[in-house]
Write a sequence for this structure.
């Protein structure tokens, strides 16, 4: 089997400009709620939360306010629309972060935020669950475009599948792909069961209300019919019922 066939069979690449499994990309236009803050996409949420959370840790009141206010610009409705623009405004073309702040974000907080983004999307969008379901058994890879293998080894979120001695090896940390696989491959959690149970209960309640309305309509109709009966008709109709 050629390397291409091995990769096609064992790897699913997903990114914003690829239609298949696009829901897994932060660039997909799926709203995300993080700690009651609503964002237009995962990309908005990732960068917005960066500034909000670093502001919470900041001891300098002036910088705390600047970080917080800049983070609010990523909330829905955001002035930053397309994914590339959001990424730029959240990166070097936006509010410049100090090295220590970037270190905290990259090594711990950012990964947890991205996990929350993925979790929200999985729990709230059927299209995401469907994309995860159909990729079971495959390695999910968020590919790094136009990146040398040497630089790829230092990338946190991206990866690249290659074949070495007939086996698939992922270069780069591929953290986004790993987070999605972790959520995909764990047993269905209580939260999803509760969401599905809530929907079933809601449907059941709607049906009960519909049937109740039918019963009330029938009772009202019967009352009107009784009101129109003469005494003799009433006695004949209900004779023996008491």
């Amino acid at each position: 089997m050629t390397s291409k066939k091995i990769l096609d069979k064992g790897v699913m690449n997903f990114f914003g400009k690829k239609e298949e499994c696009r829901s897994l990309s932060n660039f997909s236009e799926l709203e995300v709620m993080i700690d009651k803050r609503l964002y237009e996409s995962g990309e908005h949420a990732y960068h917005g939360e960066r500034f909000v959370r670093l502001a919470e840790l900041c001891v300098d009141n002036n910088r705390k306010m600047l970080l917080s206010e800049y983070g609010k610009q990523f909330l829905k409705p955001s002035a930053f629309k397309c994914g590339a623009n959001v990424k730029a405004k959240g990166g070097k073309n936006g509010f410049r972060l100090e090295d220590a702040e970037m270190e905290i974000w990259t090594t711990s907080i950012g990964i947890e935020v991205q996990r929350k983004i993925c979790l929200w999307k999985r729990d709230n969008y059927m299209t995401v669950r469907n994309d995860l379901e159909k990729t079971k058994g495959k390695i999910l890879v968020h590919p790094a475009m136009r990146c040398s293998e040497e630089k790829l080894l230092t990338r946190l979120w991206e990866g690249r599948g290659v074949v070495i001695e007939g086996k698939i090896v992922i270069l780069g940390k591929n953290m986004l792909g790993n987070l999605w696989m972790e959520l995909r491959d764990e047993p269905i959690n209580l939260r999803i069961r509760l969401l599905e149970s809530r929907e079933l209960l809601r449907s059941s309640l709607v049906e009960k209300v519909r049937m109740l309305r039918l019963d009330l309509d029938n009772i009202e109709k019967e009352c009107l019919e009784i009101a129109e009966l003469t005494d003799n008709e009433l006695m004949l109709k209900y004779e023996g019922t008491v």
Remarks:
- The longest helix spans residues 190-228.
